[in-house]
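Q: Got a minute? One more chain.
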Amino acid sequence: MKLAILRTFLTAAFLVFCFTSMQAQDKVETVEVKVTGMMCGGCASKVHKVLEGTAGIIDNEVKYPGDVAVVKYNPEKTNPEEIVGVIEEKTDFSAELKEES
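A: Always. Here it is, folded:
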């Protein structure tokens, strides 16, 4: 009896987890941000760590050379303007949204 209850509970928990994960995947957008002032890979690492610790950011890749941060984020928790703002506030670099070509 206890085993059947445990099995039912674990199955329900798994289904809730899967459903929640699928919903979260639907809410991902990507933005490219031009970062000016980086001089080395250490600078890119600093920007990466700042973005990594920012609410709503799911993943990011900061390219040096290239001076671009490619940021995947949840649009319900943050937006491109806030991402630019956090880079400028928490690093010594300038940032702007990269224009689409």
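A: The chain is about 50% helix and 25% strand.
Q: Perfect, thanks.
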